[in-house]
Specification:
α1 packs antiparallel against α3. The chain has a domain of 110 residues. The protein is an all-alpha fold. It is rod-shaped. The termini are far apart.
């Protein structure tokens, strides 16, 4: 069994705490993205139902033109708001990651060589967090693309 010096044990504890913080930031960010996606989907469905009900009341071409005219601008505004919200979540997550990693690096001190095993563990943990974050961002991007494609198809049908 490998025995660690006190400095290594302290560094290991610190790194475990940092990994826990990184995991918490990742999960919180994923929760925010999930909530954002659910809100966008709910809004899309609600507005689709309302629009369908409005179409049922159309009596002539002028009514249809009046109903569909503002749709493109409204959809564009909603998509821009969604993209800004996703960017805000991403920015917040990156800022928190940078803060945590800066704290970690500043706490390592001068004895880095003696802490090589601990640093290797941190590297692996950081890679796992990075992979989780990338997967979350990829999922959010795919959802955005699907939502955008769906909105474009609906907008073309109504135009």
């Amino acid at each position: 069994m490998t025995k660690f010096a006190n400095a290594q044990t302290d560094a290991l504890k610190s790194n475990i705490e940092a990994a826990a913080k990184l995991s918490e930031v990742t999960l919180t960010s994923l929760e925010r993205l999930t909530a954002l996606n659910l809100a966008a989907a709910r809004s899309f469905v609600e507005e689709g139902v309302a629009l369908t009900q409005s179409y049922a009341k159309v009596k002539d071409a002028d009514d249809l033109k009046t109903l569909t005219a503002p749709l493109g601008e409204k959809v564009s505004e909603q998509m821009m708001k969604y993209v800004r919200d996703v960017q805000e979540v991403s920015k917040d997550m990156q800022m928190m990651f940078a803060k945590i990693m800066n704290e970690q690096m500043s706490s390592l001190g001068d004895n880095v060589a003696a802490m090589a095993p601990v640093l290797d563990m941190v590297k692996k943990a950081t890679q796992q967090v990075s992979d989780m974050t990338a997967a979350g961002v990829k999922a959010a991007t795919e959802m955005t693309e699907k939502l955008s494609d769906s909105i474009e198809v609906k907008a073309k049908k109504t135009a």
